[in-house]
Amino acid sequence: MANKKRAGVWSFLNSRCPRCGKGKVFSGSMFNLQTFANTLGECPKCKLSYEPETGFFFGAMYWSYALIVGSIIIGSITMSLLGMFDYAVYAIPLFIIFLLPLLFRHSRLLMLYIVYPLMYHDLFYGTKRDKNNLEEESENDEEIEEVK
Ligand SMILES: [Zn+2]
Predict the structure, then answer these.
(1) At what angle do helices 88-110 and 60-81 cross, to 10 degrees?
(2) How does pLDDT run across 57-84, given as a tens digit for each residue?
(3) Distance 62 CA to ligand 1 centre (A)
(4) Distance, CA 97 to ligand 1 centroid (Å)?
């Protein structure tokens, strides 16, 4: 069952599941400030758990930082090329505030698309056992020890 196929760039840009590329990752609309951050627990299509462990998405802060610094650099270069660098101090923060829902979502998606397959390889590709099986096996191990 070692299917190493993964979703591509198009699925990433469309906020789709990193494994099947079909199921949604977020339940709310990106343009609704109250629901843009609502992340589903698992893929509605292939049942991939989006949070393999508690606090998995804390790592998205680092991706968010990288995306914001990248936006500042690209914004500065663009404003400089347009000859409007004097306004960059106002324009770039406004631009970033406007893009925050997008940056927030894509920092989470970067966790799912890059960190998830690397750290939870077996869970992501379904090659070994999933979290529920792990818990069952550990319970079985305790029972075996009790018998001895
Ligand atoms: Zn999926």
Answers:
(1) 150
(2) 999 999 999 999 999 999 999 999 999 9
(3) 24
(4) 30
Q: How far is the CA of 47 from the centre of ligand 1 (A)?
A: 6
33-72-78 Cα angle (round to 5):
110
Q: What is the pTM of this model?
A: 0.77
Q: How far is the CA of 74 from the centre of ligand 1 (A)?
A: 33
Phi and psi torsions of 39, nearest 5°: -105, 135
**Residue where the block lists tokens 């590329």:** 21
**Distance, CA of 99 to CA of 35 (rounded, Å):** 15
Calculate how far, in angstroms, residue 34's C-alpha sits from the geometric centre of ligand 1: 25
Q: Which residue has the tokens 């843009």?
A: 36
